[in-house]
């Protein structure tokens, strides 16, 4: 005989059958079933194999602590492994597959592991697989991977959407059992903003499994009426299918709502899961208590189940556990089940009560055996009998179902998430929440209150006190008399059961049994944190919800101490597993991060740009022309064209910052190492920004547009960082300076026009005279364009070393201005060039970027020693730049490097060795920071940071790439390969 | 996961909107000497308990704040606008 559906009863809709499959076999359940209840209704008790020994396993619980009934649900991209069948609502067409079995659930080769069990005990990860090491790859790992295994993740993309949101409330109530409902009614009626969350599909908690009545109505009708009232209150938000998984600082709670996990095909307009961050002024934890298993031999055989779970299947789902049911209990919980079973015509064959006096109030028909234990359950894939141990006399009873109750553990996890340690109570035989929690109170079973009536009262009173503390007027909700309320006070725990012969499991999911904990203690791993790692107890997806307290009890007895002395491992979020999808929310694929497109993106695109991602930006790498087959061909052409004719390059992504105010010049003087106070209006200046430790932070040009207005450019990479830094300087360091800073990066389209013909081309659109006399090198001014139709900013600065200008125009005009320049330059040979060509041009000219400004260099290293003012009273970096070590003559300095044979080449990152030195790290002289093929020199060229580099021009060296084992004879040289006299800049 | 930082201008906002710079130390004068500067640039206390830090409301009002945070609990005791609080001291 197996479990089966009763003809009547339960909160299921018998008019609505629901079809589903389990391992391909079609079955029927009803609307309102969980996957677990539907499987049990179909007589399906064997639902999986265990992790290590591949033992047959059945459904143990009816809630989120389920360690056994983990299944793979769904198909394709919606495949979800390790779904707890007890939490999964049944839906039309649900496909469930069992896990940890091969080749099939019924016949599993891995069950042979049981024969290997002497090698798989406590510490097996550390012992068995330690030696010989080469066997790891060949034997141990494949063995573990094959044999072990919860579900497999799918490789297909998840087609569904997820979202994240915030919520704010006066009172957050976690759990909607009797305590939570009473609290919600009390606080909701006061007008306070209340959020009530519950991890189950329906509100009501334990009341949904109750046969008691409240007032004149059944518990489930009471729930319905209470929820109707709460739904009618606009200040109360009810979130079902929502697990509060963590308590964080600021009284913020994390919760995940399973919005559409109960349907086969989600509505695309809604997310499947929603991650909540709930900011609560106060929180009431009404999470209830978890029933503990008992550790006897064969306590994992399908058919063995928690007593409260069996009661839930019976009362809520109308599912009987079997025909011959026994109950093994240490407390009164087992008797509530006995009464309910008897009411449904299933008189238990025996109640085995560990207490010598049992429960004197029990008036049912079942045979009660007091002072007795179930020492072993027997059976393979299904339970067949139990052995009873009483005062040394053994008796065997034929059963097909066994309920167990080892007492209750308050579900205190959330209360411990902020560092508080649980406290062991001998009186309650349980770990209780830490005292003095700020912002959270506990009520109901989690606070050791027992019985429905007491929980209703406790929930109402605590909520009233919390809400009044927030300034609301209310009185505790009151309720009618509770009939048939089973009060199950804490009973003495039973850790070690006498007479056990078989394997007695403590942690079902990780297959940790009683003897493993004994071994851990014997071998010196008795400390709770060590025992956890040594035995893997409590380490699986259920995080020891059922096993931890039993493990601690067994460790305590093995060590001869109290559980208080053993203590617990640390409770951390998440309470139950949270999907990556929910944590990711909308931030994946193209929404993973924003794409920044330059105002000239369209111009670049129509000119054939190949784009490269740099940070968030899409920058033009190069512009392919017909007939060009490699990127180098395009880049070489673009470089040559800039040096011969002219090129146009999009530099809009440079950081641009407006700096205004009476003290703007003084401010710049303090943030740059070189002088800015006396920069004339109409001039640009190259500036170096240091960090306080003296290293270079960033470089760029800043132009003075008027007495109190400056225009700063930064490197692309550091645009945001420099802005933050300037704000820090202005607000934290020198708030007395009158200076205002605004980022204008996105407001300007900026283009570099570089090459001997740059002026010719630009003059056709710029109204003012930009001749060398009227607008010399480093000129900077606002200009009128196209006969006064537009105004822009023109800077005569050059990164390429050619005659060059940068023109900034309002962003929305960027593309049309670039088009006009291309048109104007057509007869002068203008071509667009990208960042690759820009890079070659600057290396040829010896200009540095963040390849060289790498956080380890001071100005003198790059030949910028004169840019460190010796006369300024203060600037960022002044105090540290001249300290010992930063002025040493042995420091790496910027130098050029070129191969002796232009037909040979080298890569960035290669190291420099003295000509005949051995290729060893201690002979390292420095390394190549940047390299490129120079069409101008028809050779690879590089910039390098080399010890005393500035004194070593013309020295022959070896360029060594240790990773590729490449050696290139080369020569150090002046880092400026093109126009070292800067004549081109001034034409 | 979910901390909130009180900004004197914007109210309680998610910590993701902020950038932390670290200890809120007073910058030494340029001639304070090597030791004072080494302390300022490199040495940090690591107290258990209240600690003053610079936080920037980067994705908000862009003001720099001094946030007093308990390093053991992450509880934030207090926050103030660094510039405004200094200016109040200067011009009461
Ligand atoms: Zn703010």
Automatic annotation (TrEMBL), chain A:
Keyword Oxidoreductase attributed: yes
Source organism, top-level taxon: Bacteria
GO biological process: tetrahydrofolate metabolic process
Molecular function as annotated in GO: sarcosine oxidase activity
Keywords from the UniProt entry: Oxidoreductase
Record domain GCVT N-terminal: where: 600-872
Oxidoreductase recorded as keyword: yes
Domain annotation SoxA A3: ranges: 501-583
Name used for this protein in its record: Sarcosine oxidase subunit alpha
Domain Aminomethyltransferase C-terminal: 893-979
Family per similarity comment: Belongs to the GcvT family.
From TrEMBL, chain B:
Pfam families xrefs: SoxD
A GO biological process held by the record: tetrahydrofolate metabolic process
An example molecular function term from Gene Ontology annotations: sarcosine oxidase activity
Top-rank taxon, per record: Bacteria
Protein name: Sarcosine oxidase subunit delta
Species of provenance: Neorhizobium lilium
């Amino acid at each position: 005989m197996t479990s089966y559906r009763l003809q009547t009863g339960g909160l299921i809709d018998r008019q609505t059958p629901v079809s589903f499959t389990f391992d391909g076999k079609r079955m029927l359940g009803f609307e309102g079933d969980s996957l677990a209840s539907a499987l049990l209704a179909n007589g399906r008790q064997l639902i999986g194999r265990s992790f290590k020994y591949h033992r047959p396993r059945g459904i143990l619980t009816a809630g989120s602590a389920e360690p056994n009934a983990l299944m793979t649900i769904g198909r394709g991209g919606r495949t979800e492994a390790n779904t707890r069948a007890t939490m999964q609502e049944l839906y039309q067409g649900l496909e469930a597959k069992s896990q940890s079995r091969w080749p099939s659930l019924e016949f599993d080769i891995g069950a042979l592991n049981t024969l290997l069990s002497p090698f798989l005990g406590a510490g097996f990860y550390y012992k068995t697989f330690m030696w010989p090491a080469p066997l790891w790859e060949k034997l141990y790992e494949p063995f573990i991977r094959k044999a072990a295994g919860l579900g497999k993740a799918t490789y297909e993309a998840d087609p569904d959407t997820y979202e994240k949101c915030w919520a704010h409330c006066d009172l957050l109530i976690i759990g909607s059992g009797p305590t939570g409902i009473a609290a919600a009614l009390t606080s909701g009626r006061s007008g306070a903003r209340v959020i009530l969350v519950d991890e189950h599909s329906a509100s009501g908690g334990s009341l949904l499994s109750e046969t008691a009545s409240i007032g004149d109505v059944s518990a489930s009708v009471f729930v319905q009426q209470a929820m109707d009232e709460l739904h009618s209150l606009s200040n109360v938000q009810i979130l079902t299918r929502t697990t509060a998984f963590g308590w964080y600082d600021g009284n913020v709670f994390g919760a995940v709502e399973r919005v559409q996990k109960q349907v086969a095909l989600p509505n695309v307009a809604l997310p499947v899961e929603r991650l909540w961050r709930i900011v609560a002024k106060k929180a009431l934890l009404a999470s209830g208590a978890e029933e503990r298993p008992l550790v006897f031999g064969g306590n994992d055989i399908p058919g063995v189940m928690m007593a409260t779970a069996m009661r839930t299947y019976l009362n809520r789902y109308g599912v009987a556990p079997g025909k011959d049911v026994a109950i093994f209990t240490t407390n009164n919980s087992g008797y509530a089940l006995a009464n309910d079973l008897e009411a449904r015509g299933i008189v238990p064959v025996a109640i085995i009560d560990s207490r010598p006096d049992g429960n004197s109030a029990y008036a049912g028909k079942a045979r009660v055996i007091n002072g007795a234990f179930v020492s072993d359950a027997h059976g393979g894939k299904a339970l067949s009998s139990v052995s009873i141990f009483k005062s040394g006399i053994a008796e065997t009873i034929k059963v097909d179902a066994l309920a167990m109750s080892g007492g209750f553990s308050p579900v205190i996890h959330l209360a411990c998430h902020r560092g508080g340690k649980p406290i062991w109570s001998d009186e309650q035989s349980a770990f209780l929440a830490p005292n003095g929690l700020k912002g959270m109170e506990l009520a109901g079973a989690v606070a050791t209150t027992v019985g429905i009536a007491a929980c209703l009262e406790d929930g109402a009173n605590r909520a009233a006190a919390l809400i009044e503390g927030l300034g609301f007027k209310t009185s505790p909700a009151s309720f009618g008399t509770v009939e048939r309320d089973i009060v199950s006070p804490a009973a003495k725990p039973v850790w070690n059961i006498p007479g056990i012969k078989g394997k007695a499991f403590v942690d079902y999911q990780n297959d940790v049994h009683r003897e493993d904990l004994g071994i851990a203690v014997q071998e010196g791993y008795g400390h709770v944190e060590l025992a956890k790692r040594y035995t893997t107890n409590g380490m699986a997806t259920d995080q020891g919800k059922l096993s931890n307290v039993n493990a601690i009890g067994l460790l305590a007895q093995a060590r001869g101490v109290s559980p208080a002395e053993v203590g617990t491992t640390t409770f951390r979020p998440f309470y139950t597993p949270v999907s990556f999808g929910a944590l990711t929310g909308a931030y994946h694929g193209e929404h993973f991060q924003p794409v920044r497109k330059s105002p000239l993106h369209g111009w670049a695109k129509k000119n054939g740009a190949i784009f490269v991602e740099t940070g968030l930006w899409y920058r033009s790498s190069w512009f392919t022309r017909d007939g060009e087959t490699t990127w180098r061909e395009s880049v070489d052409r673009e470089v040559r064209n800039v040096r011969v004719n002219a090129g146009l390059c999009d530099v809009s992504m440079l950081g641009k910052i407006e700096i205004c105010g009476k003290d703007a010049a003084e401010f710049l003087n303090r943030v740059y190492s070189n002088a800015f106070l006396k920069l004339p209006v109409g001039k640009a200046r190259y500036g170096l920004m240091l960090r306080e430790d003296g290293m270079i932070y960033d470089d760029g040009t800043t132009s003075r547009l008027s007495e109190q207005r400056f225009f700063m450019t930064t490197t692309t990479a550091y645009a945001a960082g420099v802005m933050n830094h300037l704000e820090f300087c202005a607000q934290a360091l020198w708030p007395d300076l009158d200076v205002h800073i605004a980022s204008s990066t996105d407001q300007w389209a900026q283009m570099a026009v570089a090459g001997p013909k740059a002026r010719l081309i630009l003059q056709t659109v710029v109204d003012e005279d930009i001749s060398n006399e009227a607008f010399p090198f480093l000129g900077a001014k606002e200009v009128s364009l196209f006969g006064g139709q537009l105004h822009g900013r023109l800077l005569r600065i050059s990164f390429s070393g050619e005659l060059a200008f940068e023109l900034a125009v309002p962003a929305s005009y960027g593309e049309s201005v670039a088009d006009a320049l291309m048109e104007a330059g057509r007869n002068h040979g203008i071509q667009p060039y990208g960042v690759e060509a820009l890079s070659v041009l600057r290396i040829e000219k010896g200009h540095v970027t963040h390849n060289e400004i790498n956080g380890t260099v001071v100005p003198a290293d790059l030949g910028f020693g004169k840019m460190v003012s010796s006369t300024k009273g203060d600037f960022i970096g002044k105090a540290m730049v001249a300290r010992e070590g930063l002025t040493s003559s042995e420091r790496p300095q910027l130098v050029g490097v070129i191969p002796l044979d232009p037909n040979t080449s080298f890569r960035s990152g290669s190291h420099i060795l003295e000509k005949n030195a051995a290729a060893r790290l201690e002979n390292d002289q420095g390394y190549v920071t940047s390299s490129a093929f120079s069409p101008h020199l028809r050779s690879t060229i590089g910039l390098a940071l080399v010890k005393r580099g500035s004194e070593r021009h013309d020295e022959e060296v070896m360029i060594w790439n240790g990773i590729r084992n490449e050696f290139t004879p080369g020569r150090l040289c002046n880092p400026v390969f093109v126009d070292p006299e800067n004549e081109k800049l001034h034409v | 996961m979910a901390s909130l930082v009180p900004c004197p201008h914007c109210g309680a906002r998610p910590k993701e909107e902020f950038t932390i710079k670290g200890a809120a130390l007073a910058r030494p004068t340029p001639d304070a000497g090597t030791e004072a500067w080494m302390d300022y640039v490199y040495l940090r206390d690591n107290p258990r308990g209240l600690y003053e830090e610079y936080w920037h409301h980067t994705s908000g009002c862009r003001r720099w704040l001094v946030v007093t945070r308990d390093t053991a609990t992450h509880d934030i005791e207090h926050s103030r606008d660094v510039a405004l609080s200094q200016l109040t001291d200067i011009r009461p």
